[in-house]
Amino acid sequence: MAEKLMKYADAVKQFDPVFGLETHVELSTNTKLFCPAHIEFGGEPNSQLTPVSLGLPGSLPVINETAVDYAIKLGLALHCEIAEWSQFARKNYFYPDMPRDYQISQYDKPTNGNGYLDVELEDGTVFRVQIERAHIEDDAGKNTHVGGADGRIEGADHSLVDYNRAGVPLIEIVTKPIEGAGERAPEIAGAYMRAIRDIVRALNISHARMEQGNMRADVNVSLRPMGSKEFGTRSETKNVNSFRGIEKTMQYEIRRQAAILADGGEILQETRHWDEATQTTAGGRVKSDADDYRYFPDPDLVMLHITKDRIDRISKEMPEMPRERRNRLQQEWQFSDLEMRDVINADALDTIEATVSAGASASGAKKWWLGELSREANAKGVSLEELDITPEDVAEVEKLIADGKLNDKLAKQTVAGVLAGEGHPADVVKAHGYQVVSDDGALVAAVDEAFAANPDVVEKLKSGNMKPMGAIIGAVMRATKGQADAKAVTKIVMEKLH
User: Fold this and answer.
1) Which pTM was predicted?
2) Which CATH number applies to 440-497?
3) Which residues of the chain fall below pLDDT 70?
């Protein structure tokens, strides 16, 4: 049965939303957090296992040093206080996809705490999100429910479990309650998640592919009457794995909770699940508090000691952060705020930068990636990076145009050939015989034919009306099968008119 919802605009007029995000970032280490099992996305189920990741008796965990360094990098990027001593704890809970039936996480002594991230919204507004902690933990495996609708456990007749992901290192970034967002709460949540994605990619500590589960978020939402300081009861929507899904989850929960509160009802503190197909959340289980997990220090792991020298060394290796990089590139490329916003929204910054590095102009690179190639990616339902064309290919096409060897039409046909798997631009040009006709004799003959076929147009041009010029150029293009140099054609036409 459909739940009662209040209009979003009415909900944020009557109630003040408070939200928090728990972001799980899967680290791109070669091996798991506490054992040497290899990590590979899409591997044969239950093939990436060791006695430690299976929780076999007598097996002992050993911390992955690279994962700790990655955690320090992220802590620095999020302006966190990095603890000299931190501790791993056992989080006890029924985990059907965790062989040892408890998670190794950090509780009261996390590696990173008390940080912040300044999030820039589309209109240039900067909103500061306070970070409570960014702690290290290992991931659970993956359950696949068979026989039910949409892979859910409801109605399933059996379940399969893949332990490959069990033990993969994660960093969980937990915000403090985010207040003062008002009606922009979903927008801020989406912008925050995009900023986290950009940071972990810049640090090269995670692939951050949400569709592969490298990055996902638990979305906590509560409402309180306007003017109240006391937090309302929150819901927690688990494992939302898309930016749009996070924004839609928040909008739905605000509308759902507002309708309940307006009718005098009470919000149940529970976990919920986002359903992309119906664009709704659905109730799960009553939410447990920390006490219910029975945290205690893991007796198999000593406390983690991070020295100041280690932090200083890693600090010197830190790359340029995404926000500073965007500002620098915008100045170098001389893009307006609107142009740069279009680049960011299209997730094209990396590809454009790589194309410019390969020799293209910034404006030319932007034209291709936000034009023809963006339409192609949307049609195929893939990202720009997944298209069968590289930044080097695009730069090569731009050079062929600059050298006068291709016009716009031939360039588009060349790009289409590359996307179709016909090779690099030079291979496509050679295979199809693409070549701009710049021979004056051939072009003069084609212009003469166009003049003869369009005497009324010629008369208008002679009278000073240049609007019909396209008819002559179009006729020449048809005669040369689109291979004429438009600039050369225009020059010949003007010479003949005068």
Assistant:
1) 0.79
2) 1.10.10.410
3) 1, 149-152, 287-291, 436-444, 446-448, 450-451, 457-460, 463, 465, 468-470, 473, 476-477, 479-493, 495-498
Q: Provide the residue ranges of all domains of the chain, joining segments of one domain with +.
A: 8-314, 320-432, 440-497
Which among 165, 177, 175, 180 has a CA at the least distance from the CA of 196?
A: 175
